[in-house]
Amino acid sequence: MKSMHRRPITITAMICVLLLLAVFLSPASAKRGGDDIRSEFRGIVTEMPAGGFSGEWVIGGRVVLTDPATEFDQAEGPLGIGGCAKVKIRNGRVHEIDSEPLNSCK
Prior knowledge:
By secondary structure, the chain is α+β, with helices and mostly antiparallel strands. The chain folds into two domains: 1-30; 33-105, CATH 2.40.50. Helices cover 25% and strands 38% of the residues. Strands 1, 2, 3, 4, 5, 6 and 7 form a seven-stranded mixed sheet that branches. A hairpin with a 2-residue loop joins β3 and β4 (62-65).
């Protein structure tokens, strides 16, 4: 009779371990820095704000909004229509847009 009571506890423990592994090994948690949730993507710039960098961009078919706190890195060349860009998102807002070599978007 003892073994019948141990079996549910063992199964429950295994389920808990599997759930913890799923949470800690998920792609979303892999890019966490502290409490920050981060993601990034690359794409070709097809639209950008007129007269500056703050505003609406279309990069890789995705619309992103930048603000005065967004960082722009043009070390790989100027950011512009037809160029490749990497967008870094932190906690749901565009943290940085980097120019990238064109072959990074292919």
